[in-house]
Design a protein that fits this description.
single chain, alpha+beta, 5-stranded mixed beta sheet, 4-stranded antiparallel beta sheet, 10 helices, 53% helix, 14% strand
């Protein structure tokens, strides 16, 4: 069932329930009970006891009245000649003489009972010696009125509660419905590709938080698409430039425009250099698309010491070509041999070496000639770590949270000419092996950047 339909059902239920409740309560309200039935029962019970020769007293009168359902407050027993035998009326004394015709006026004149409902009945109409009983029916009416008033009060109180609850529910439902409708309209606009459109929230805190989360997702998606667009533009440029140069110099060679062997060799060297750039670029693209497919990679048992020594030798050669002072070794002291045990690990050696090569390439790229680049294999509290540090300008604080994001390029001040996924490959390799990776300022406090690939073991 749609949310709007649920709201409609709830609205109908909240508004209709008070009416149903009121009808039920009013239906239970009783009509005033006919006093003639309990009166006859009361008099008949007294007659039976009197006929049996039992002496009647106030206690018997109250007992039989209670059995008949009459709340007896005041009563009197009068002989046929008008003599008062028993009485609880303040104005009628036992032993006094009275006329039956004076009873009603006398009670009406009494200030103690403002609205008397007196009933005078003979116990036995066929027996002239039968006494008369005089009693007040006002408590019977009062009891019934009190009961009805109580039911009525409860009904009105419940009705008021339901009405208030219904009004509040309607306001809440209206607010939520408006908020959801606004949210639906805004998300529909964003779904068309208008990522600059802000999703506004309203109503309660939960709706506002949902709108905030949608906006965050929208901004992240916009940022990813922007970086992807920049990446594609950069790749297009990086592909177009060397291809154009290769094509130009190849055409020059084909047309015999190079007049001497030195010129031809220079043209061939340029073509080879641009071909290597294309190879590096396509290698990065392949690594980026290949890593992390189904989360499984082939592994082999690798000697970390041997791998580190091989990488160090390779990096030392590359550093010399780029005029960097390269230092490498085991531990902080850059020892030629480790002074701590190195285990053999099951890893994908090609991917790990590719990740370390990316970190090393960044260190060379963002450091000046004649500056130092250091490569270490360290022992940490929870295992080992490959560390590569440089003396470059470092990474700005605002760029640190995004350096591992795909297609992200750092601030223009770094002169970044990459494609935005070199460090993404590093992070993917680390995650595939269950390792950790971090990049930031150097741990020793010197200016520059340090990247660490942590190996728990």
């Amino acid at each position: 069932m749609k949310l709007r339909a649920q709201f409609a059902v709830l609205t109908v239920a909240v508004t209709a329930l008070p009416l149903v409740f009121a009808l039920l309560f009013f239906g239970f309200q009783r009509e005033p009970k006919d006093p003639r039935i309990p009166t006859r029962e009361f008099v008949h019970a007294l007659l039976e006891r009197w006929s049996a020769g039992e002496a009647l007293d106030i206690g018997i009168l109250q007992e039989e009245a209670s059995n008949a359902g009459i709340p007896l407050k005041e009563a009197a027993l009068i002989s046929p000649d008008g003599k008062v035998l028993l009485s609880t009326f303040p104005g009628i004394k036992p032993g006094s003489q009275m006329k039956f015709s004076d009873v009603i006026p006398q009670r009406q004149a009494s200030r103690e009972i403002p609205r008397p409902e007196l009933k005078l009945m003979a116990l036995d109409h066929q027996n002239p010696a039968s006494p008369f009983v005089l009693f007040d029916l006002q408590p019977l009416w009062t009891k019934q009125d009190l009961r009805n008033r109580t039911i009525l009060l409860a009904a009105f109180f419940a009705l008021a509660i339901f009405v208030v609850a219904g009004i509040i529910s309607l306001l809440i439902l209206k607010s939520i419905s408006h908020a959801i409708r606004t949210l639906e309209e805004d998300t529909a606009i964003v779904a068309t590709g208008a990522l600059d459109h802000e999703v506004t929230g309203s109503a309660n805190h939960e709706i506002l938080q949902l709108a905030k989360s949608i906006n965050l997702m929208r901004l992240n998606l916009k940022d990813i698409l922007l970086r992807r667009s920049k990446m594609l533009m950069g790749i297009s440029h990086d592909l177009k430039t060397p291809i154009a140069l290769i094509q130009g110099y190849a055409d020059a060679l084909a047309d015999n425009l190079a007049s001497d062997s030195e010129t031809r060799e220079r043209y061939v060297e340029i073509i080879q250099c641009k071909a290597r750039q294309l190879e590096d670029l396509t290698g990065e693209l392949i690594d980026f698309l290949k890593i992390g497919g189904d989360g499984s990679v082939p592994v082999q048992d690798v000697d970390l010491e041997e791998m580190f020594l091989a990488l160090g030798s390779r990096f030392e050669s590359d550093s010399g070509l780029l005029k960097r002072r390269f230092q490498w070794g085991f531990g902080e002291q850059l020892l030629s041999r480790p002074d701590f045990p190195l285990p053999r690990l099951a890893i994908n050696r090609l991917l790990v070496e590719r990740a370390l090569e990316n970190l090393f390439s960044n260190a060379l790229k963002y450091s000046a000639p004649d500056s130092a680049v250091e490569f270490r294999l360290l022992r940490e509290e929870k295992g080992l770590a490959f560390s590569i540090s440089d003396e470059g300008q470092g990474i700005e604080e605002k760029d640190l949270p995004f350096v591992f994001d795909a297609f992200y390029r750092a601030s223009p001040s770094r002169g970044d000419s990459g494609h935005g996924f070199g460090l993404t490959v590093v992070k993917a390799v680390a995650e595939l092996h269950g390792w950790g990776v971090e990049i930031g300022g150097r741990k020793d406090g010197k200016p520059g950047t340090e990247a660490r690939l942590s190996v728990p073991c």
